[in-house]
Write a structure and sequence with these properties.
about 450 residues, mainly alpha, Na+/H+ antiporter like fold
Amino acid sequence: MPTNAVYLVVGLAMLVAAVLPSVLARYAISAPMVLLALGMAIGLAPLPSGLSIDPVDVRPTVQRLTEITVLVALMGVGLALDRPFSFRNRESWGAWSATWRLLVIAMPLTIAGIALLGWALGLAPAAALLLGALLSPTDPVLAGDVQVAGPRVVDDKREDAEGGESKDSESAESAETAESAGSAESAEEIDEKDEVRFALTSEAGLNDGLAFPFVYAAIFLAVEGPASGWFLRWVGWELVGKVVLGVAVGILVGWGLARVAFRAPRRALRLAEQGEPLLVLAALVLTYGVSELVGGYGFLAVFACGMALRAAERGHEYHRSMHELVANLERLLVLVVLLLLGTAMTKGLLAPLDWRGVLVALVLVFVLRPLAGFLSLGLWRHRSAYPGGMTRWEALATAFFGVRGVGSLYYLAYAAGLYAFPEERWLWAVTAVAITVSVFVHGTLATPVMRHLEVRRERLTA
């Protein structure tokens, strides 16, 4: 393929990505499915000389690209969640019950299941644990068909920003009611009613950061040997300390920027009144930078920052503007990642693949994640009439739709950059197959299943 033809191919692919959402809206076909297939087709053509897409050769590039993609998606997820959360509100904790169950029960069970399967198939313990860690998170990037659509706006009577002193007084009054992220008034005005979409969205926002401790555990196991020498240090710092730091940084930065954007003394600083959505990108980069600087998990920090921004003036139109900006940027990044992944798959990425890798991917998608998810949601289930409660069918759907995607690629690139795992190429092949199976299976079933659940929900509430 001549170098100039690359621009033509990428341009056509971007055009396809732009029109796909509206074209595929009525069909059981997702945009990631089409983009991945298009990338595979591109990979069948010859590439320009000197251009390599082998993830082992270009690992730093893969790591940065997937890192940025996940960060943008996490900020979008934080802004999109309509359901507020307050640390001091017991009802708020209950409304997020499905999220906590998926994180505390389903995720560790999935990690353990994949790790044990990998070990039984002949992987070294460290590689098996890494495989479990990188394949465990529900992806915030490729799960758009089963996630919440975006922030809803209820404040339709907001006066124009040019109201001068009256506007300032309104901002001061709203500040008192918006300081608590989980206030009763906010919960009544805006709340996500679809428990399946909410659970999958909030899970994806949190578990992409919570996979980090287990990635580090795999690295420690490979570098330092048996867990007896590092387990307590891992629990204290990697599992607890960095999580707390990341969440704290995200909340503080998001709260501070929200105070400026919505309630700054000077109108020139109130970006919400100006409708300037670039604040969301500044918030993303600033939060990630501060969190990484102090040693926290940046992924968790960015998600927490998005939620903290949303908690301020929850019904403001500005949240929708910021979300639209990150959503458009995310679509562009997903286009690049999926095209490159598809191209790499038909350019030799799958060469190390064997029956073991195919088995792992199929067991993950059809057995381990659904079983772990249902154990966490179905055995001790909140009744659907209560906040955070689900019907049995909703629990089954939530358990099944654990989409795997870009986050898995990032974790593998990150871990392989810190330690040279002998099984690295095999891990890349298995990860690619797992993502492909997830994209096509979940992408095909998402539309009909979600429609079926909506019909059942309407019948129950009629």
